[in-house]
Amino acid sequence: MKGWNGKILRVDLSKGTTKVVPYSEETAKKFIGGRGLAVKLLWDELPSGADPLGPENIIVFATGPYTALQVPNSGKMVVASKSPLTGGYGDGNLGTRAATNMRKCGVDAVAVTGKAEKPVYIYVEDDETEIRDAGHLWGKDSYETEDWIMEKHGKAAGVLIIGQSGENLCRLATVVAQKGRAGGRPGMGAVMGSKNLKALVFKGSKELAVADPEKLKDLGRKGFEKIPKFDAFPSWKREGTMMAADMMQTAGALPTRNFSEGVFEHIENVNGDAVHAATVTQRGCPNCNMICGNTILDSEGRESELDYENVTMLGSNIGLGDLAQIGTLNRICDELGLDTIGAGNAIGFAMECAEKGLHPIAVNWGDFEGAKKLLYEMAMMEGDGALFGLGTRAAAEKIGGEAPDFAIHAKGLEVSAYDCHVCPGMALSFGTSPIGAHHKDAWVISWEISSGIREEYGPEKADKVIEFQRIRGGMFECLVGCRFPWIELGYPLEDYPGYFEAATGVEMSLDDMWTMGDRVYALVRAFWVREYGDKWGRHMDYPPERWFKHPLTEGALAGKHLDKEKYDKLLGFYYEKRGWDDRGIPTKATLKKLSLAKEAGQLAKYVGLK
Questions:
Q1: Which of 86, 160, 498, 571 is in the most buried spot, having the most CB atoms within 10 Å?
Q2: pLDDT over 90 at 1, yes or no
Q3: For 134-180, what is the HEC assignment?
Q4: Is the peptide bond before 20 cis (omega within 30 degrees of 0)?
Q5: Contact 589, 516 (CB under 8 A)
Q6: What's the pLDDT tens digit per position in 155-203?
Q7: Is 607 left (phi over 0), alpha (psi -120 to 50) or beta?
Q8: Continuous H helices in 557-605
């Protein structure tokens, strides 16, 4: 194969063995890479009902044929596993030198199973793989660990690390790289911790074999030249994702005090202008010329890389309007390996529990010191953190009473930074996201609030969610590449099949890419259904109860909320367009059409197919 390395590094930590094995050209063409390759591996090899924190679980680190090419924004990878937070399929992507180095080691993915007797890290240099002792790193935060690795193996190495939250099996633990890059919101860091796996280190020097090197070089050069010429580029360069803060405030969709409101009285302290004024440097992923990481000095005088999600979830969502303090909370999360979205959600939930007298925790809205204390407790799974570190769904179930009504999640994954009291399309995006409530697959909210049909529940909303899922969650998550040039600047989607063909020699149109995306979504959905069995139902695709039951009380949208009956009808449109039945399960005909007939037969052992 050209473009693909066609090999997977398999590591069994229980046995202490490593081996590189090929995977088929058929798999490469059907699932491309990244998310597609990961879910295929998990579906084929992970036993149904496996304990997410048990040695039988598999954690997959996967790149795609786009990764590490000299083309725009190609420095990304996917980390995936059965999620200890949701109990279903979980993944995340992150931009890091580990992605490019892995590909240059001659493999497209690493699949790790088992559990080491003692803490270890995996070291890969070209064709050589070693499982090395990490006892001296266990208990250290991700920054300290990375410093040691860089000194030991050189600054060009790519690293994937967990902090104390992963070691202690906090369900909000992520995988961290390069002191500010993180991925794997559904507890991927806890899966690494359960295996006594502290880090992976990659040093690769191999050339990537592509089908048409000269054509790819020409296309890549032209692509890099296009990006700074887009009208939106100067604004992006100035603020990055922080442009969304004022947009959401104006739209009444900025998460405020545990998503109870959509506007924040201190927005001017935490918006794009504020971050731009405080920025001391910018950081980006490999092969990127539209850098999005704005780094400020936090309240302790240390660097903290900010974006819209962490500023909002650790700011307005917990009632905190001090940017430097938000920076500190964000940097602590990165050190500890905590998901900033999940942590901000859990803190907001804890603050509301305290306000309502449902749980005896001493933390109030805007309480910086209380929030900081809770972050450390969640990472160590001690004190109140032992409860809230399980995630908001599990914590709400344990607290009981009305707590589940304001636990802001879908399928157990905390909602990211968009309030949907008056955004049914984005609510559908959260409800049907393949990993739980995440925005990365279908960020339709910008379209929705400017569409003129914001409050409607018509089939065009389902169409738009599916369109975005095919592009963002399908093509970009499988190639693997960054969606920002397209969604933020207007970079033409038509370029990506060209890159793909020059790299692999395989001709694939955008429509073919969408079909591939539908195949991956169907298999991810099958994974969820297999794991949940009789407990699965269309209720799994509902957004948080708060958006239905508790109207906004502030701003121009005061008094408004989602309509559950209309949402259910919208969900029905989505199922119909996807070829899924009224339970949200792909039908036999749909699975066959997507070349998943074998998988349909396997799924039928767990649930009746229509």
A1: 160
A2: no
A3: CCCCCCCCHHHHHHHHHHHHCCCCEEEECCHHHHCCCCCECEEECCC
A4: no
A5: no
A6: 999 999 999 999 999 999 999 999 988 999 999 999 999 999 999 999 9
A7: beta
A8: 564-578, 588-593, 597-603
Q: CA–CA separation, 396 vs 213, rounded Å? A: 54
CB atoms near residue 265 (< 10 Å): 12
pTM over 0.70? The answer is yes
Facing residues of 133 across strands? 120
For residue 187, give the amino acid letter.
G
451-466 residue pLDDT tens: 999 999 999 999 999 9
pLDDT at 285 over 90: no
C-alpha 177/C-alpha 199 separation (Å) is 10
DSSP states of 449-489: HHSS-TT---HHHHHHHHHHIIIIIIIIHHHT--SHIIIII
For residues 421-441, average pLDDT:
97
| Domain limits, the chain | 7-203
Give me Rg for the CA atoms of the chain: 22
Helix (H) or strand (E) holding 293: strand 293-297
Query: Which residues, at least 6 apart from 115, have a Cβ–Cβ distance to it below 8 Å?
Result: 13, 14, 55, 194, 195, 196
Q: 113: which 2 tokens?
A: 């199973």
Query: Pick from 370, 371, 297, 296: which is nearest to 329 by CA?
Result: 371
3-state class (DSSP) for residue 184: coil
Identify the CATH assignment for 7-203 out of 3.40.50.300, 3.60.9.10, 1.10.645.10, 1.10.3660.10.
Answer: 3.60.9.10
Contact 287, 484 (CB under 8 A): no
Nearest 5 degrees, angle CA 64-CA 66-CA 71?
160
Only one residue has tokens 């009208």, namely 231
258: alpha, beta or left? (left if phi > 0; alpha if psi -120 to 50)? left
Long-range residue pairs from 569-573, CB within 8 A, at least 24 positions apart, any chain = 569/457, 570/424, 570/428, 570/457, 570/458, 570/459, 570/461, 570/462, 571/428, 571/431, 571/432, 571/538, 571/541, 571/542, 573/458, 573/459, 573/461, 573/462
- Rounded Cα distance between 310 and 417, Å, is 8
Average pLDDT, the chain: 97
